[in-house]
Design a protein that fits this description.
By secondary structure, this protein is of the alpha/beta class. The protein folds into two domains: 12-82 and 180-239 and 248-252, D-Maltodextrin-Binding Protein, domain 2, CATH 3.40.190; 90-176, Periplasmic binding protein-like II (D-Maltodextrin-Binding Protein, domain 2), CATH 3.40.190. The protein has helices at 23-31, 45-53, 111-124, 153-157, 168-176, 193-207, 210-218, 226-233, 240-252, and strands at residues 12-17, 38-43, 59-63, 74-83, 90-94, 103-106, 130-133, 146-151, 164-167, 180-187, 235-237. β6, α3 and β7 form a beta-alpha-beta unit. α1 crosses α6 (193-207). The longest helix has 15 residues, at 193-207. It is globular and about 55 Å long. The termini are far apart.
Length: 253
Protein backbone atom coordinates (compact mmCIF):
# COMPACT_ATOMS: atom_id res chain seq x y z
CA UNK A 1 0.00 0.00 0.00
CA UNK A 2 1.75 3.17 -1.10
CA UNK A 3 1.48 6.51 0.63
CA UNK A 4 -0.80 9.08 -0.95
CA UNK A 5 0.96 10.12 -4.10
CA UNK A 6 1.26 13.81 -4.79
CA UNK A 7 0.35 15.26 -8.12
CA UNK A 8 3.61 17.16 -8.41
CA UNK A 9 3.55 20.27 -10.58
CA UNK A 10 6.96 19.27 -11.94
CA UNK A 11 8.57 15.85 -12.29
CA UNK A 12 11.51 15.11 -10.02
CA UNK A 13 14.65 14.49 -12.08
CA UNK A 14 16.24 11.25 -10.91
CA UNK A 15 19.66 10.17 -12.16
CA UNK A 16 20.76 6.55 -11.94
CA UNK A 17 23.75 4.57 -13.12
CA UNK A 18 23.08 2.39 -16.14
CA UNK A 19 24.99 -0.55 -14.57
CA UNK A 20 23.55 -3.99 -13.87
CA UNK A 21 23.68 -3.41 -10.10
CA UNK A 22 20.95 -0.74 -10.31
CA UNK A 23 18.54 -2.86 -12.36
CA UNK A 24 16.56 -4.18 -9.35
CA UNK A 25 16.12 -0.64 -8.00
CA UNK A 26 15.13 0.74 -11.40
CA UNK A 27 12.70 -2.14 -11.96
CA UNK A 28 10.99 -1.21 -8.68
CA UNK A 29 10.74 2.45 -9.65
CA UNK A 30 9.29 1.57 -13.04
CA UNK A 31 6.67 -0.77 -11.54
CA UNK A 32 5.52 1.71 -8.88
CA UNK A 33 3.10 4.63 -9.23
CA UNK A 34 5.91 6.98 -8.09
CA UNK A 35 7.39 6.59 -11.59
CA UNK A 36 4.71 9.00 -12.86
CA UNK A 37 6.41 11.74 -10.81
CA UNK A 38 9.93 10.96 -12.08
CA UNK A 39 12.00 11.94 -15.07
CA UNK A 40 14.65 9.19 -15.15
CA UNK A 41 18.13 9.99 -16.51
CA UNK A 42 20.71 7.18 -16.86
CA UNK A 43 24.45 7.87 -17.06
CA UNK A 44 27.69 6.66 -15.52
CA UNK A 45 28.50 7.63 -11.91
CA UNK A 46 30.97 10.48 -12.44
CA UNK A 47 28.56 12.23 -14.84
CA UNK A 48 25.65 11.86 -12.42
CA UNK A 49 27.77 13.38 -9.66
CA UNK A 50 28.41 16.40 -11.89
CA UNK A 51 24.70 16.64 -12.78
CA UNK A 52 23.76 16.67 -9.10
CA UNK A 53 26.33 19.40 -8.39
CA UNK A 54 25.11 21.41 -11.40
CA UNK A 55 21.46 20.96 -10.37
CA UNK A 56 20.48 19.35 -13.69
CA UNK A 57 19.06 16.45 -11.62
CA UNK A 58 17.35 16.60 -8.20
CA UNK A 59 18.22 13.11 -6.91
CA UNK A 60 21.04 10.84 -8.01
CA UNK A 61 22.27 7.36 -7.22
CA UNK A 62 25.76 8.81 -6.98
CA UNK A 63 29.22 7.75 -5.77
CA UNK A 64 29.45 8.56 -2.05
CA UNK A 65 32.76 10.37 -2.70
CA UNK A 66 30.75 13.24 -4.22
CA UNK A 67 28.75 13.92 -1.02
CA UNK A 68 31.33 16.33 0.53
CA UNK A 69 31.34 18.37 -2.70
CA UNK A 70 27.60 19.10 -2.54
CA UNK A 71 26.42 22.31 -0.88
CA UNK A 72 23.41 20.63 0.78
CA UNK A 73 23.39 16.84 0.41
CA UNK A 74 20.43 14.80 1.66
CA UNK A 75 20.59 10.99 1.73
CA UNK A 76 16.95 10.21 1.01
CA UNK A 77 16.69 6.43 0.88
CA UNK A 78 17.13 3.28 2.94
CA UNK A 79 18.78 1.66 -0.09
CA UNK A 80 22.22 1.89 -1.64
CA UNK A 81 24.77 0.03 -3.75
CA UNK A 82 26.86 -1.57 -1.02
CA UNK A 83 28.82 -4.70 -0.17
CA UNK A 84 29.32 -6.83 2.93
CA UNK A 85 31.78 -9.15 1.15
CA UNK A 86 33.36 -9.39 -2.31
CA UNK A 87 31.44 -7.11 -4.69
CA UNK A 88 32.86 -8.64 -7.92
CA UNK A 89 32.29 -5.50 -10.00
CA UNK A 90 34.98 -3.22 -8.51
CA UNK A 91 38.42 -4.82 -8.77
CA UNK A 92 42.07 -4.24 -9.56
CA UNK A 93 43.00 -6.59 -12.40
CA UNK A 94 46.62 -7.48 -12.99
CA UNK A 95 49.02 -9.83 -14.76
CA UNK A 96 51.27 -9.91 -11.67
CA UNK A 97 50.71 -10.16 -7.89
CA UNK A 98 50.01 -6.99 -5.92
CA UNK A 99 53.58 -6.63 -4.60
CA UNK A 100 54.90 -6.50 -8.20
CA UNK A 101 52.47 -3.86 -9.52
CA UNK A 102 54.19 -0.57 -10.39
CA UNK A 103 51.33 1.43 -11.97
CA UNK A 104 47.52 1.35 -11.92
CA UNK A 105 45.06 2.86 -14.40
CA UNK A 106 42.05 4.34 -12.60
CA UNK A 107 38.68 3.81 -14.30
CA UNK A 108 37.24 7.26 -15.05
CA UNK A 109 33.61 6.18 -14.48
CA UNK A 110 33.45 6.47 -10.69
CA UNK A 111 35.15 8.76 -8.17
CA UNK A 112 34.31 6.47 -5.23
CA UNK A 113 36.01 3.40 -6.68
CA UNK A 114 39.07 5.42 -7.69
CA UNK A 115 39.38 6.94 -4.22
CA UNK A 116 38.84 3.55 -2.59
CA UNK A 117 41.66 2.14 -4.72
CA UNK A 118 43.96 5.01 -3.66
CA UNK A 119 43.19 4.47 0.04
CA UNK A 120 43.67 0.69 -0.12
CA UNK A 121 46.85 0.78 -2.22
CA UNK A 122 48.42 3.20 0.27
CA UNK A 123 47.06 1.99 3.63
CA UNK A 124 46.11 -1.66 3.17
CA UNK A 125 48.45 -3.07 0.52
CA UNK A 126 51.12 -0.40 1.26
CA UNK A 127 52.05 -0.22 -2.41
CA UNK A 128 53.75 2.90 -3.72
CA UNK A 129 52.47 2.77 -7.29
CA UNK A 130 52.06 5.28 -10.09
CA UNK A 131 48.36 6.13 -10.45
CA UNK A 132 47.39 6.81 -14.06
CA UNK A 133 44.32 8.49 -15.50
CA UNK A 134 42.68 5.90 -17.71
CA UNK A 135 42.20 6.54 -21.43
CA UNK A 136 39.17 4.95 -23.11
CA UNK A 137 41.20 1.87 -24.13
CA UNK A 138 42.82 1.38 -20.69
CA UNK A 139 41.72 -2.24 -20.35
CA UNK A 140 43.95 -3.09 -23.31
CA UNK A 141 46.91 -1.60 -21.42
CA UNK A 142 46.89 -4.07 -18.52
CA UNK A 143 50.22 -5.77 -19.10
CA UNK A 144 53.45 -6.63 -17.32
CA UNK A 145 53.42 -4.63 -14.04
CA UNK A 146 50.67 -2.20 -15.11
CA UNK A 147 47.27 -3.02 -13.55
CA UNK A 148 43.89 -1.28 -13.66
CA UNK A 149 40.82 -0.60 -11.56
CA UNK A 150 37.81 -1.76 -13.58
CA UNK A 151 34.28 -1.18 -12.33
CA UNK A 152 30.70 -2.02 -13.16
CA UNK A 153 29.55 -4.33 -15.92
CA UNK A 154 32.99 -4.25 -17.56
CA UNK A 155 34.52 -5.74 -14.39
CA UNK A 156 32.01 -8.60 -14.45
CA UNK A 157 32.80 -9.24 -18.12
CA UNK A 158 36.55 -9.32 -17.33
CA UNK A 159 36.09 -11.25 -14.08
CA UNK A 160 38.15 -14.30 -15.09
CA UNK A 161 40.33 -12.64 -17.74
CA UNK A 162 43.50 -11.95 -15.71
CA UNK A 163 45.71 -14.07 -13.44
CA UNK A 164 45.24 -11.68 -10.49
CA UNK A 165 42.05 -9.99 -9.30
CA UNK A 166 41.79 -7.87 -6.13
CA UNK A 167 38.23 -7.11 -5.02
CA UNK A 168 38.13 -3.62 -3.50
CA UNK A 169 35.08 -4.21 -1.29
CA UNK A 170 36.63 -7.36 0.16
CA UNK A 171 39.91 -5.50 0.79
CA UNK A 172 38.07 -2.60 2.49
CA UNK A 173 36.24 -5.04 4.79
CA UNK A 174 39.54 -6.76 5.65
CA UNK A 175 41.12 -3.36 6.30
CA UNK A 176 38.34 -1.72 8.37
CA UNK A 177 36.00 -4.48 9.50
CA UNK A 178 33.11 -2.45 8.05
CA UNK A 179 30.94 -2.89 4.95
CA UNK A 180 31.37 -0.51 2.03
CA UNK A 181 28.90 1.79 0.27
CA UNK A 182 29.71 2.64 -3.34
CA UNK A 183 26.66 4.76 -4.14
CA UNK A 184 23.53 6.00 -2.44
CA UNK A 185 20.45 8.03 -3.36
CA UNK A 186 21.37 11.66 -2.67
CA UNK A 187 19.28 14.79 -3.21
CA UNK A 188 20.73 18.28 -3.57
CA UNK A 189 17.66 19.94 -1.97
CA UNK A 190 14.87 18.99 0.47
CA UNK A 191 12.44 16.55 -1.18
CA UNK A 192 8.78 16.06 -0.28
CA UNK A 193 8.41 13.37 2.41
CA UNK A 194 5.49 11.66 0.68
CA UNK A 195 7.57 11.33 -2.48
CA UNK A 196 10.48 9.92 -0.44
CA UNK A 197 8.22 7.34 1.24
CA UNK A 198 6.97 6.15 -2.14
CA UNK A 199 10.46 6.26 -3.65
CA UNK A 200 11.73 4.04 -0.82
CA UNK A 201 8.80 1.67 -1.25
CA UNK A 202 9.56 1.43 -4.98
CA UNK A 203 13.19 0.50 -4.30
CA UNK A 204 12.02 -2.24 -1.95
CA UNK A 205 9.55 -3.50 -4.55
CA UNK A 206 12.42 -4.04 -6.97
CA UNK A 207 14.45 -5.97 -4.42
CA UNK A 208 11.46 -8.23 -3.75
CA UNK A 209 11.39 -9.13 -7.45
CA UNK A 210 15.02 -10.15 -8.09
CA UNK A 211 13.96 -13.34 -9.93
CA UNK A 212 11.92 -11.31 -12.42
CA UNK A 213 14.77 -8.84 -12.96
CA UNK A 214 17.25 -11.68 -13.54
CA UNK A 215 14.86 -13.36 -15.98
CA UNK A 216 14.50 -10.12 -17.97
CA UNK A 217 18.26 -9.61 -18.15
CA UNK A 218 19.43 -13.18 -18.69
CA UNK A 219 18.41 -13.25 -22.37
CA UNK A 220 21.15 -10.73 -23.17
CA UNK A 221 23.69 -11.46 -20.45
CA UNK A 222 25.75 -14.54 -19.57
CA UNK A 223 29.11 -13.18 -18.32
CA UNK A 224 28.32 -13.60 -14.62
CA UNK A 225 25.65 -15.23 -12.42
CA UNK A 226 23.25 -12.30 -12.01
CA UNK A 227 21.20 -13.90 -9.24
CA UNK A 228 24.37 -14.33 -7.17
CA UNK A 229 25.45 -10.79 -8.05
CA UNK A 230 22.16 -9.22 -6.88
CA UNK A 231 21.77 -11.36 -3.76
CA UNK A 232 25.33 -12.12 -2.60
CA UNK A 233 27.73 -9.53 -4.08
CA UNK A 234 25.57 -6.40 -3.84
CA UNK A 235 24.00 -5.53 -0.48
CA UNK A 236 21.24 -2.97 -0.99
CA UNK A 237 20.09 -2.03 2.52
CA UNK A 238 21.64 1.16 3.88
CA UNK A 239 21.85 0.04 7.50
CA UNK A 240 23.79 1.39 10.49
CA UNK A 241 26.93 -0.67 9.75
CA UNK A 242 27.06 0.63 6.17
CA UNK A 243 26.60 4.20 7.40
CA UNK A 244 29.59 3.68 9.71
CA UNK A 245 31.66 2.32 6.81
CA UNK A 246 30.61 5.27 4.66
CA UNK A 247 31.56 7.77 7.37
CA UNK A 248 34.99 6.14 7.75
CA UNK A 249 35.57 6.22 3.99
CA UNK A 250 34.60 9.90 3.78
CA UNK A 251 36.93 10.71 6.68
CA UNK A 252 39.82 9.10 4.76
CA UNK A 253 39.26 11.06 1.55
Amino acid sequence: MHANLLQLSKKIRVGAVSYLNTKPLLYGLQQHAVYNNIELIEDYPANLAKSLKDNTIDIGLVPVAVIPALAAPYIISDYCIGATGPVASVCIFSQVPMESITSVYLDYQSKTSVNLARILLKNYWKQDVLLLEAPSNFMDLIDDTTAAVIIGDRALEKYNSYPYRYDLAEAWINYTGKPFVFATWVANKPIDEVFIANFNEANGLGLNNIDTVVEQLSHNYNSYDLHAYFTKNISYNLDAAKKEGMAQFLSLL
